[in-house]
Amino acid sequence: MMRKPVRFLRRAAFGGLSLSLGIGLSGCIPGVEKPELSLEVPASYKTAAKGDADAAVPALAWWRGFRSTELTGLMESAQLYNLDIAVAIAQIVQADAQVGVSGAALLPSISGSANAESQRVAAGSSTSLAGGSTFSQYSLGLSASYIVDFWGKNRATLSASEESATSARYNREVVALSTMATVANTYFQVLAAQDQIKVTRRNLAAAERILALIKSQFAGGTASQLDLSQQEALVATQRAAIPPLEVTVGQNIAALAVLVARAPANFTVRGGSTTQIAVPRVTPGLPSELLYQRPDVRQAEAQLASSNFSVDAARAAFFPQIQLTGTTGFQSAALASLFAPGAWYYTLAAGLTQPLFDGFLLESQLKLAKGQQLQYLQAYRKAVLSAFADVEKALIALQKYTLQERLQADVVAASRKAFEVAETQLRGGTVNLITVLQAQQTLFTAENNLVTVRLNKLLAASSLFQALGGGWTPAGTLAAAVP
What are phi and psi of 258, to 5 degrees? Predict the structure, then answer.
């Protein structure tokens, strides 16, 4: 009667020794302090106008503000069919599956077994009867094992996987936002190139009018060969400028086809003009709101949280591992009596494993996890600061290009008036050809510059929407279903 308490005390003493050993080893583990973020969040944007701080975040369908039916159609097609977004969705599926893999360690493992065995011993054997004998054995059982997550290692691993799955969802939004901005920018490039083609052809027609007038004067002896050759060179220059612009149009249309997952040969874009595109008013709000509006910032935050849990899991690996196992079932020499009361059996066992020396593997794994934690910390800080910088740069560009467009439009108006006067005076013979050539070059350059400025303004607007996290809201992202 006294032997059971003795065995219990021995087991308790062994368990206490292992626990003390585990705690002793944990004293060698580096500190558990979490790194400080030390983020500098400005109170407002330097370039934002007064009253913009109270504005709402960009609309989900921010591209509708440009008032282009074709652009809206391209955006909606990209959301449905873009292959980069499809890849990001597949990565979400993988991340969710990894959550299931990590969570399996928190649940018991149960397996079933069935066995039927028959053995015959030949006659004359030392273990058989005179005529030989046959032995049969039947068994049916269940076995279960469970690792007690006393130190939280498996739970921390699961939490790290869950944060990684969250990061994958934010990554999908990052890819979608980048794709939307790329579609808009590529479409604007098509419009700008079409505008430049129109400007070049209009300038070509004007240069050919002047050339015809100079040829007439040359035939009458009032213009020199030099005057004629100079104008012919200008006409040829304008004509040669058209093919590169057509290349730009074709290549950007092909790029749009890829963005909406279409074969370029079966894809067309009507296009139009940058003058038909409205630039919506974009207000940035408060910089502190950007930490929630930008999916890339939220993604970096989730990666940092995942690395924190990975450090916890690596730290918990220093402690003893407690495993419980059990087996139960039926075993009999006769199939008919397999489920008889006497055939039932069970075994229970508990084990404890404590790492003593592993060549500093666990310590190195903890250092690796802490190094990754510091890496994601710096990546998060950079993501935040880059987000502020992106908004500031886009605000500056949109503000200055809007001003430049107005000023450049005045330049074009004055240059066109000067060219018209010079052409009229040339026909009347009251101005020399050099003045006309200078007026032509000034007008051609001014009109091309105006197209470029308009393009830059449109690109700045789409960049500002992207910098503000337009097209995405934190409330609706993680709840989105994955096909």
Answer: -65, -40
Q: Could you tell me if 371 and 280 lie in one domain?
A: yes
| Statement to judge: residues 335 and 186 lie in one domain | no
One domain for residues 143 and 66: no
Q: What is the pLDDT of residues 443-458, one digit of tens each?
A: 999 999 999 999 999 9
Phi, psi of 480 (to 5 degrees): -65, 135
Same-domain status, 210 and 115: no
Q: Express each pLDDT in 86-95 by its tens digit.
A: 999 999 999 9
Which burial class, exposed, middle or buried, applies to 336 when counting CB atoms under 10 A from its CB (0-12, 13-18, 19+)? exposed
Q: Give the ranges where 124-224 is alpha helix by DSSP (H).
A: 153-220
* 400 and 304 share one domain: yes
Residue 237 near residue 444 (C-beta atoms within 8 A): no
Final residue before a domain boundary, out of 353, 375, 397: 353
d(CA 11, CA 404): 84
Percent of the chain with pLDDT over 70: 84
| Helix, strand, coil percentages, rounded to 5, for the chain | 65, 10, 25
List Cβ neighbours of 462 (8 Å cut-off, separation of 6 or more). 181, 184, 185, 188
Tokens 């404890």 found at: 352
Asked if 158 and 102 touch (Cβ cutoff 8 Å), the reply is: yes
For residue 20, the SS3 value is helix
CA separation for the pair 463, 177 (Å, rounded):
10
337: left (phi over 0), alpha (psi -120 to 50) or beta: alpha
Query: Cα-flanking dihedrals φ and ψ of residue 146, to 5°?
Result: -150, 130
Q: Which helix (H) or strand (E) holds 147?
A: strand 133-148
- Which residues constitute the domain of residue 201? 36-107+151-319+359-477
Residues 116 and 101 in one domain: no
- In the block, residue with structure tokens 């054997």: 125
Share of the chain above pLDDT 90, in %: 53
Q: Name residue 133's amino acid.
A: S
- 242 and 303: one domain? yes
Domain count of the fold of the chain? 2
340 and 397 share one domain: no
